[in-house]
Amino acid sequence: MARKDSSPNVDRRKFLAGVAVAGAATAVAPKVSAAAVGAAEKKLPSALPPSAQQIAAEVGTPKALAQATRPDGSDFMVDVIKSLDIEYLPSNCASSFRGLHESLINYGHNKKPEFLTVNHEEIAVAMGHGYFKVTGKPMMTLAHGTVGMQHACMAMYNAWCDRVPVIMVGGNHLEASMRPPGVPTFHSAQDINALVRDFTKWDDTPLSLNHFAQSFVRAYKIAMTPPYGPVAIALDADLQQEPIKNGEKLSIPRYVPTSPPQGDTGAVKEAARLLANAERPVLVVDRTARTPNAIKLLVELAELLQCPVVDRGARMNFPKTHHLSRAPGVIGQADVIIGLELADFWATVNAWIDTGEGGHGINESRIKDDTKLISINSSDLLTKANYQDFQRFQVVDVHMAADAEATLPALIEAVRSAIPAGRKAAIERRGEASRKAKAEARQRNLAAMAVGWDASPISTARLTMEVWAQIKDLDWSMVGSDRQMSGWPSRIWPMEKHYHHLGHSGGAGLGYNLSAAVGAALANRPLGRFSLNFQPDGDFMYSPGALWTSAHHNIPMLTVMHNNRGYHQEVMHVQRLSNRRNRVAALGKTTGPIGTSIEAPDIDYAKMAQSMGVQGFGPIKDPAELGPTLKRAVDAVKSGQPALVDVWTQPR
Amino acid sequence: MSNVVRVGVAALAACLLIETGAALAASADNGKKVYMAVGCWGCHGTVGQGGVTGPKLAPEPLPYEAFSAFVRTTNRAMPPYREPVLSNSDLADIHAYLEAQPKAADHKTIPLLNQ
């Protein structure tokens, strides 16, 4: 279908305004004059390869031709996208979606969504991941057929594991007889969505513009129904570039959010009965707080029971300052445990110990035999077979396939009415005991932080407190994960708001942290929040280009490198195996076993940052220099710039 | 590495105060090298401060007998170091290195830990 339409020019800017405004399920007929479509189509010989001119004629878009064309399908697509109020579209540009790209920036005026330039599809998806955790709104991204989708895969898998919505639109040339030969054909596939089908909630390949409208709104709706998750739309290049057919009635379905699934009434009652009568109930949370409101609900439930709350840290669920916020040790004492949206219930109540026994280590229970277990987890509604993110199998006594946040109000009421009057005093005493235990634990943590205080490389505890001194009076948001730093910030900082701590990647795939942090910092920017990113070096080197995006789009964020100069998990793994086999681990020219260190040469992250337009400081090896350097970097960020401080750190 | 030198000097300074100072300083110095070479640092930190991957070893490590018995026979999260991998004298030097670590300051006296 060569698009050689001789119909009169129309004003493309104004053309589809009616569609967007009409919005809700209104059929709109484009007001294009009734000229013949594709009238002047020239046939190519079927058996001969096309000449260079012929290829140019098919693939290139001569100016005069574009002028003469009626509005193309991608303008309508922009109207569809705009109906969902998506703010940003980070993407690595590509020919298979050039139609939509051009429409977004010219017809759509590059607003809602704004096109953000990124250097890798993994960065785009992870930015959406981080952004969602601050705003509760999804981003969309555009990826190039097989290439872009493959690059995006790990980030999509992270989003899937972390139950985060991301809308992936992949460009593709479906029409094999007319697609541009050579590279674009290498980049095409029958079914690009197959690449991500195992870890997306839904995908589709629209065949018409109305099909696109319905599928895009459907994709958004599915992604945003708890349990959230990524979705994919394969977008045919021709569909973007073909003029809207004369007389075609186009409509955009209205988006109506789907309410989340709530736990069954009987199961909620039984859970409440167990909790209300328990001696030592424990509440375990993980991806529980989908919205900030869940933090309040969790406080209400915990206070009602005066029970310890253990946060496994995929979200900021419960104020760390609360007297019921406790370390995981309390799980072993529990007689009833309720797990709310746990990524891994098995590992909450069991341990796997890497003893090497039998080649695979041993399993041990962390709880008493008669401990009752309750689970509310929406992920039970979203189990697929291939990837094992559903984790080890755990038997629980009351098991609700439901959204925890949506179920909490009913559970709170049920617990309130189930608490026997005679138990109130015992419940109060439980709270007092927790207050005391928590205060003691804090002192132990502070004493542990003091050990190695002046060490070089710098201890992660010292780093945590040096940074805290600089940001504590600001409205701060920790946009990266602190997992690799012995979790010191989560253990010691007064985290109370949902944006104080955004959890981790979900699928533990490197390449997430820096990009997700940039996405979260973008979300924090209009609110004037100070974004702080603790950045492991291994993760940094997967997608350093995210820093360039932060400079290019003026996204202020302080990145503090946790530069332990290695893939430290693997340093320990190879060391373990060497010992078990009675062999000295070969180090080569590095500190860790061969293949695990990022040394010799040492990477200068400050220079990398500078080369991408980000203020770079360090490397800092002497703890005494840390405070003054951080202060300068904080000042740079306050002025609206991204900045990076490279710090040579202890391994964990 | 500059920190090797710094720790060595600190250990030497501390040990000159006691009778066996010179011998102990030498072994602590070698202990640091071995501690790094055989990977103790990976789970316990370069000064034995500990973390989520391994408990604190210094200052004040376990008495040598318990220490060496543990290192030789542990069969859980910490892999054992047997003699072919780590000689008795190197293990003793590691212990000396850990013993030479300065005592941590009381956290109440560190301003950053009292913010």
Question: Which key features would you list for this structure?
Answer:
heterodimer; A: alpha/beta; Rossmann fold; 4 domains; six-stranded parallel beta sheet; five-stranded parallel beta sheet; 24 helices; globular; disordered N terminus; B: 115 residues; mainly alpha; Cytochrome Bc1 Complex, Chain D, domain 2
Gist?
Chain A is an alpha/beta fold and 652 residues long. In chain A, 38% of the residues lie in helices and 14% in strands.
Structural summary, described in words:
The complex is a heterodimer of chains A (652) and B (115). Chain A is of the alpha/beta class and 652 residues long. Chain A has four domains: 1-61, no CATH class; 73-241, Rossmann fold, CATH 3.40.50; 265-436, TPP-binding domain (Rossmann fold, 3-Layer(aba) Sandwich), CATH 3.40.50.1220; 450-565 and 602-648, 3-Layer(aba) Sandwich (Rossmann fold), CATH 3.40.50.970. In chain A, strands 9-8-7-10-13-14 form a six-stranded parallel beta sheet. A five-stranded parallel beta sheet of chain A has the order 15-16-17-19-18, sandwiched between helices. In chain A, helix 13 (292-305) links the parallel strand 7 (281-285) and strand 8 (309-311). The N and C termini of chain A lie far apart (59 Å). With 115 residues, chain B is mainly α. Chain B has a single domain (3-104), classed as Cytochrome Bc1 Complex, Chain D, domain 2. Helices cover 50% and strands 0% of the residues of chain B. In chain B, helix 1 (2-15) runs antiparallel to helix 2 and helix 2 (21-37) crosses helix 5 (88-99). The model of chain B is unreliable at 1-25 (pLDDT under 50). The chains are: A alpha/beta (652), B mainly alpha (115). The interface between A and B is large, with 49 and 39 residues.
Beta strands of chain B, count: 0
Shape of chain A: globular
Give the class-level CATH name of the largest domain in chain A.
Alpha Beta
- Radius of gyration of chain B (CA) equals 15 Å
Number of strands of chain A: 19
CATH topology of the largest domain in chain A: Rossmann fold
Distance between the termini of chain B: 33 Å
Question: Would you tell me which CATH topology of chain B applies?
Answer: Cytochrome Bc1 Complex, Chain D, domain 2
Supply the number of helical segments of chain B: 5
CATH superfamily (homologous) name of the largest domain in chain A: TPP-binding domain
User: Most extensive interface: pair and counts?
Assistant: A-B, 49 and 39 residues
Low-confidence stretches of chain A: 1-48, 60-68
Which CATH-level-2 architecture of chain B?
Answer: Orthogonal Bundle
